[in-house]
What we know:
The complex is a heterodimer. By secondary structure, chain A is of the alpha/beta class. Chain A contains 11 helices and 14 strands.
Amino acid sequence: MSRHGNGAPNGDAPPAIVVEKLTKKFGDFVADDELTFSVAQGEIFGILGPNGAGKSTLIRMLNTLVVPTSGRALVMGKDVRKQAVQVRAEIGVIPQANTVDGDLTAWESLDIYGKFYGMPRKERHARALELLAAVDLMEWKDKAAGTYSGGMRRRLEIARGLINRPNVFILDEPTTGLDPQSRRVIWELLERLRGEGGLTILICTHYMDEADRLCDRLAIVDHGKIAALGTPRELKANVPGQDILTVNFIGEVDDALVAALKGLPDVKEAARDDPHTVRLILQGDIAPVDAIVEVVRARHMRMKSMTLLEPTLEDVFIHYTGRALRDTATGEYSYDVPKFMR
Amino acid sequence: MYEFKFSRMLAVAERDLRRFRRNRAFMVPMVLMPIVYLVILGQAMGGDLHHLPIALVNQDHGPGAVAVQARLQTLEQSRSLFRLANEPDPATALARLRQGDYKAVVMVPADFSADIARGEAAPLGVVLDNTDNTAANVIEAELRRAMAGATGGPMVASIDVQRVDVYGHKEFTQYLVPAVIALALFFVAMLAGGIILVDDRARGIHEGYFVTPLSALDLVGGLTLSATTLAMIIGTVVLGAALLIARIPLIGGLQTLLLCECAMALLGLGLILFMFTLMARVSNPMMPRALFGILNVVTFFPSGALYPTESYPGWLQGLSMVFPMRYAVHALRALLLKGVGPQAVALDFGVMGGFALLWLVLAATFFKRTL
């Protein structure tokens, strides 16, 4: 579906996206504060962050909807501020809000967007058919999009964003509000795009499982700054002492056993979860299984099971961004147009 | 079904009142609208007529003719009803009447004073531009009163004012046709240029456009083209229906029809681009709806569609001149009721075209291309 077809991120090619000290201020409020990172061609790069962290503003600066206050951003070598029109020709965008035109059919929507990019009729139609098949909307292509479910609309937006064969595909919370089936379909679609290679994908999300499954690298943004940057594995590895070992016993656990387990060198914390279960928070990379077995035998207890829980991306997220809510008010009222007026 | 609790009802009312308090800006049009109606309608529709351009063709220089001229000058000076000009001959005066320079031509025949001297009823010809129904009736009534009511002696009492409608008899319904066409185009401009534009913006449709290579001019141009097409369809249907209902004969045939289409296109363009400029940065869909009534009063009523512009005070004349509605109504009236050719409406078309161009530049300039 994309222009190229060479598989994994291309580290030799110039970066698809370069962001240098990119800053956006709204009055006194700094939404993004000197952000710096780059995204390789063919990479899926995720931006994670709590609500109001500055993710959407960053996305909107990169897709030319918001003009940066200072700093620089290049998309496929083109400056988002000085070469906005050229940048728009390089990108496909799925905005956060649902922007599907409910009055048009999927076919009409794709055809009209193809015209926006100046695509010749034959190429437009071939591309529209290819994309409708890819997003599984062929059967519904002649129905008004206003009659589609949320998942179908999002798939149509993905098809629409790819109509011009972009080099960079920017998705702002593409699965928010969708049911698990629709989310899965969209993930598979994005994975297929990655499999074809070449297309750089920038995805903004606050679904950890989505980021973990799809992204080659992630930036965690908080308070307008990058709090952490790396592959999901690197980020998880950098969260200290967070492996959790749950040990389930056949008999009831007494305080002495809990205290003995807590006394082991690689155990940071031990606590009883229920009468038969002890939860151990470990420090270091290796679970002290032998030592635990020794302690248990010495006390004539029998273990039923042992489960090691590695830190999730959510643990990483909470580690870097904390637990406090980030409520903000924009100062502007939003207004949804009633359906009967549409 | 009829279960009721006072506190719950109060909670519903409280919610709505809080909403109104948070949207105080929208209260302004509600308060302003009746005031604007009072000021503009009061001045545009109920005022006395002033400065009606009248030509006097005096072919007699006897005492009767002098008396007629004196009475016309009195009306001009005392009530500012007329703006009197002298023309040397009937042909020139009538030609200028047809061009719209005069609302009426008063003709004093060569033997006017001699007829009066003989004690016979002296005919005083009044040729009226009856495509302006209100002004024509006022001029005729004022002339009859001035001539018949004069008590200066038996001489003036025998003046017989004879009305001639230069365009034949016209029904009031026919006189209204340009007004309803202009009104129909205003509604289209309000809907397509205001309400739909802002609704699409609120629904995120424009956000989808903005991430494509479309420029502000592409957007404004495209939206204008679609809205103008809609305006032309609606205008043509209304024109056809109005021609049938009012039974207006198309004097100029196909040429008149084409010129009417041009007038509608130019008016539609001007109004739509005016709305685009006004709504260029509006994001709340309540706004165009709240402004609907005020814009209708401000653009339509001072256009001369229902009442002659000669009755307006200076400030209202100025207001009427900055909206293309006045020129469209004038052109459509001339085309449909007088059967004039392109030359007679060229100025109206030029002004409307100029307005459209000006609003296009302003709309493209102010149309927000980013969020």
